[in-house]
Amino acid sequence: MSKQPQAGREEILEYQVMWEPDSKKNTQMDRFRAAAGAASGLALENYDDLYHWSVESYPDFWAEFWKFSGIVFSRMYDEVVDTSKGIADVPEWFKGSRLNYAENLLRHKENDRVALYAAREGREEIVKVTFEELRQQVALFAAAMRKMGVKQGDRVVGYLPNGVHAVEAMLAAASIGAIWSSTSPDFGVNGVLDRFSQIQPKLIFSVEAVVYNGKEYSHMDKLQQVVKGLPDLKKVVLIPYVASKEKIDISKIPNSVFLDDFLATGKGAQAPQLEFEQLPFSHPLFIMFSSGTTGAPKCMVHSAGGTLIQHLKEHVLHGNTGSGDILLYYTTVGWMMWNWMVSALATGAAVVLYDGSPLVPTPNVLWDLVDRIGITILGTGAKWLAVLEEKQLKPGGTDIISCFMGQNFSVPVYRGEIQARNLGMAVEAWNEEGKAVWGESGELVCTKPIPCQPTHFWNDENGSKYRKAYFSRFPGVWVHGDFCRINPKTGGISMLGRSDGTLNPNGVRFGSSEIYNIVEAFEEVADSLCIPQYNKDGDERVLLFLKMASGHSFGPELVKSICNAIRVGLSARHVPSLILETKGIPYTLNGKKVEVAVKQIIAGKAVEYRGAFSNPEALDLYRDIPELQDF
């Protein structure tokens, strides 16, 4: 791994500091750095020293963190990892060890301490579940699952909102050694079947209806069609969520049962005991899915041990999370941040589950929860923050199921940058020649093995899909598909958009986010989409589509102003060849802007998997645009 150029403190000061770490605060990162320094015999004086040790001596780093984290296990490992194998070989980690993911999340014995808070749109009540109550419910769910024949390796899925029962069902499946996967209720029938039909679940949990943005949406017709498309299902468990059980008709759904009747099958003369199957570190825990915007979603299998140790590292070291914390990340069960958030239970922290719109009845919903519950850690995607900025509100982060980079209590926050590369993640930005570059845009790559990479893809027996997804660009090196820039002076990272949508007009390679950062500062623009268009000779030009903000109109003066801003802020070669108005920008169900599918449509290709989009009708806006026909 190449070492980044160093910079003095006086050079770094030219970047705007948004937050400085408290030098008097002894964080868990500080304590780990001291322990790692003592164990290695090295003077690890700061985060930069610790980071470089963690990627250069990665087996020692992960062994030291295993010890520091207090992972619960029944058998110690024989070997951390075979260092003769690279990241493309997907080496086995912590060989010989036995553990259980759910046991680690439920290990905290302060029975009356709150583990989960659950809040919902339109309801004033906040439900509290203690660690003891959570253990009892997980035991009951697991007993009922075992009674119906769920065993190690079976797939258990949730078509569920972000609530307590989703956590209980997931932990119960994990306690048995079954594999959990989930999608949220905003997924349409095709979107769900594109995912679940590939993994053939035995059991599904769902609800009859959800509430979002002030409106109730019945779930029953969708659920009926989903069940019809999953012939291997043995049981459908319906959880009354909006209406009472008496008002819900499940007679049209085969093999269906209400939750309380399902759980009753697990009850005996005495309450069931919580049992944790002791499994290899590499045992499958979750199946996560790619977005599916350009083809069938990839089914990425993540191990129990890899997920656990990586999430613990991020929560304990990078987030300084502990038993005194209360964490809320605004997410759905269809995004990997839900799995990441729930893993915080392993630190003893409480987790807040919120289901509904973050803007109803006011944009202050999440901030109000911060005040009411005493949330100490709040996380969200960029889209919600952009909406708050639009509304001028002044209030008082799937492939690796975790993060290559992120928050860090040890280093400052600089405006426009993610703080630092995470420990153990040998991340670099590479140019087209496969050379590390600093201070300029490049492919986000990871050069050394990590325990959180997928063990394999489901239904990919020879591994060809896996290799094509990550290792076809630079052999032996993980290419994540994102464009980034690593600041050599601060160590911070700027994300520049998907590299499969990289723009390269006249040999100038840049990411769409560089354009968005300038364009969306214009109050006239509500949203934008920047993509390349190619002609039959392979020449490329850049197209910029603008969705206008309410009360503003598209016109030549605005186009001129935007072109000038891009020319001044970036360069003349960044200026789009054509700027057009659009009435809609397509997004995935997880709120990510879609560029590649629009690029396909403009090239005259069909987009098969429309179920992957939250607003598939927006795709049709880009068909047969007259201004694009003569290129």
UniProtKB/TrEMBL annotation:
GO molecular function: acetoacetate-CoA ligase activity; ATP binding
EC number, as in UniProt: 6.2.1.16
Gene3D superfamilies in UniProt: 3.30.300.30, N-terminal domain of ligase-like
Catalyzed chemical reaction(s): acetoacetate + ATP + CoA = acetoacetyl-CoA + AMP + diphosphate
Top-rank EC class of the record's enzyme: ligase
GO cellular component, one term: cytosol
Pfam families: ACAS_N (PF16177), AMP-binding (PF00501)
Subcellular location: Cytoplasm, Cytosol
Acetyl-coenzyme A synthetase N-terminal domain: residues covered: 47-104
Domain of life: Eukaryota
Record key words, sorted: ATP-binding, Cytoplasm, Fatty acid metabolism, Ligase, Lipid metabolism, Nucleotide-binding
Family: Belongs to the ATP-dependent AMP-binding enzyme family.
Purpose: Converts acetoacetate to acetoacetyl-CoA in the cytosol.
Protein name as it appears in the record: Acetoacetyl-CoA synthetase
Species: Enhydra lutris kenyoni (northern sea otter)
